């Protein structure tokens, strides 16, 4: 990568990944690139599966060197699910942090038999590295593939190109700002776009990252309270677990996305002067395309922000139209952007705006608001019910830990809302609380108490699992 080459020349001793400098990462990545070639051969597409680690990051950088298309597999997948995904994309070479496939340990331990010069100014990989010193190499080349989480159906394969990455990191730098001493705490899994882009933003910006294998409250709090990091990406479930333990910090950015952020959590962050950036994005858009600093916009707490540079968002009311209580027209959120994929692999390409499946609206100041997923919308007796609205109200109750609202067929109303919840509140308490803030037709017709709700690797509640008989059987 030209960025890694440039930084290794201009600031070789600056920290990049944990204790490793840019010089060290550049040199070791090039060695690793040579080693990987022996395993990949003529294959243009490979897969990799791992939890976060320095070795995982190095493997990703080396695979970028080789310009092979790399499928990032979720480390929580079962063998059957892995087989489905690699068969779909005709992949035969798989690298893993354990011994299930070609292990990282084996690759790192491979001896280099061809001539190799370790001086970073004179590295030879069959001449390939020269193009990384040129800004004009093929921008539409696919580097990564991510399969969307199958929470709403069969997975779809999202290609991520050099151009998408470049466009995203430039827009992100403008919206989040930049400091030469930035150190981004990486706790989101790198096999998801949110975690991967932390690595790539830092690479492009020439800043540092601190990688943790997983979200460990004690380690995260230590790094924050001791000013070891000043940036972090989280989902609200993570922040809830640590917010009361933050004593002092120099956090410049806390990027949050993926789910509702309750008022109490925002208020605690504001008191601590934590610069929360709410965001909205998806794998298809190479992570966030909308964000804003909550501290600068306390009157917009329900919003997810304004579109970033290179992002055009329109509200499509052709298939769906509803007006909010303030009179704003709501419809499906559609996106056009240089960060946007050109189409799912093995599917028709995109033309025009990408339909997100989310329902939302813009206010007069250009701030975007999300009502819910179109697929989550419950039409009960002709009335539209947004599960997210009910969930948001419940999350503002300090006695509610987790909740999710799904639909259930009903002979009288067509569909009615059903609430799954983790709380110490009684059913009567919950209904009374909701009735004080919601119309009667929005009140859940059934309340199911659980000790926990099923979540994916980023902490997002999986409603598909709640709808499945398998999950019900496990809890009964």
From TrEMBL:
Residues 389-460 form the AMP-binding enzyme C-terminal domain. InterPro entries: AMP-bd_C (IPR025110), AMP-bd_C_sf (IPR045851), AMP-dep_synth/lig_dom (IPR000873), ANL_N_sf (IPR042099), MenE (IPR010192). The keyword Lyase does not apply. Its EC number is 6.2.1.26. Residues 17-345 form the AMP-dependent synthetase/ligase domain. The keyword Calcium does not apply. It holds the Pfam family AMP-binding_C. Keywords: ATP-binding, Ligase, Menaquinone biosynthesis, Nucleotide-binding. One of its GO terms (biological process) is menaquinone biosynthetic process. GO terms for molecular function: ATP binding; medium-chain fatty acid-CoA ligase activity; o-succinylbenzoate-CoA ligase activity. Belongs to the ATP-dependent AMP-binding enzyme family. This is O-succinylbenzoate--CoA ligase. The gene is menE.
């Amino acid at each position: 990568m030209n960025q890694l080459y440039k930084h290794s020349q201009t600031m070789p001793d600056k920290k990049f990944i944990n204790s490793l400098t840019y010089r060290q990462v550049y040199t070791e990545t090039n060695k690793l690139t040579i080693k990987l070639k022996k395993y990949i051969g003529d294959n243009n597409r490979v897969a990799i599966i791992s939890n976060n680690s320095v070795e995982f990051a190095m493997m990703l950088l080396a695979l970028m060197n080789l310009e092979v298309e790399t499928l990032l597999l979720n480390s929580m997948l079962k063998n059957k699910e892995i087989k489905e995904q690699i068969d779909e994309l005709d992949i035969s070479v798989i690298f893993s942090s354990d011994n299930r496939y070609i292990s990282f340990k084996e690759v790192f331990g491979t001896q280099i038999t061809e001539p190799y010069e370790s001086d970073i100014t004179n590295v030879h990989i069959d001449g390939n590295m020269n193009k990384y010193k040129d800004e004009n190499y093929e921008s539409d080349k696919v580097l990564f593939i991510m399969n969307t989480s199958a929470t709403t159906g069969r997975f779809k394969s999202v290609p991520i190109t050099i151009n998408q990455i470049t466009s995203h990191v430039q827009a992100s730098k403008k919206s989040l700002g930049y400091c030469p001493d930035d150190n981004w705490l990486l706790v989101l899994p790198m096999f998801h776009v949110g975690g991967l882009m932390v690595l790539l933003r830092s690479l492009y910006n020439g800043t540092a990252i601190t990688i943790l294998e997983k979200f460990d409250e004690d380690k995260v709090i230590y790094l924050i309270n001791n000013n070891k990091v000043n940036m972090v990406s989280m989902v609200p479930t993570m922040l809830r677990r640590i917010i009361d333990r933050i004593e002092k910090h120099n956090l410049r950015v806390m990027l949050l996305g993926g789910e509702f952020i309750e008022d109490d959590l925002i208020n605690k962050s504001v008191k601590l002067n934590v610069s929360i950036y709410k965001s909205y994005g998806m794998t298809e858009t190479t992570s966030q395309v909308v964000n804003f600093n909550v501290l600068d916009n306390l009157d917009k707490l329900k919003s997810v922000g304004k579109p970033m540079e290179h992002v055009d968002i329109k509200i499509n009311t052709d298939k769906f139209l509803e007006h909010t209580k303030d009179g704003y027209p709501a419809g499906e959120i559609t996106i056009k952007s240089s960060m946007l994929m050109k189409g799912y692999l093995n599917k028709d390409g995109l033309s025009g705006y990408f339909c997100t499946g989310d329902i939302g609206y813009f206010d007069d100041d250009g701030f975007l608001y999300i009502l819910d997923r179109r697929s989550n919308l419950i039409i009960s007796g002709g009335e539209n019910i947004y599960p997210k609205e009910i969930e948001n109200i419940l999350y503002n109750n300090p006695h509610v830990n987790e909740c999710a609202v799904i639909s259930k067929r009903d002979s009288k109303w067509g569909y009615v809302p059903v609430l799954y919840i983790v709380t110490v509140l009684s059913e009567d308490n919950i209904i009374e609380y909701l009735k004080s803030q919601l119309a009667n037709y929005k009140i859940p017709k059934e309340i199911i108490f659980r000790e926990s709700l099923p979540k994916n690797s980023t902490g997002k509640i999986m409603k598909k699992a709640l709808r499945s008989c398998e999950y019900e059987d496990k809890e009964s």
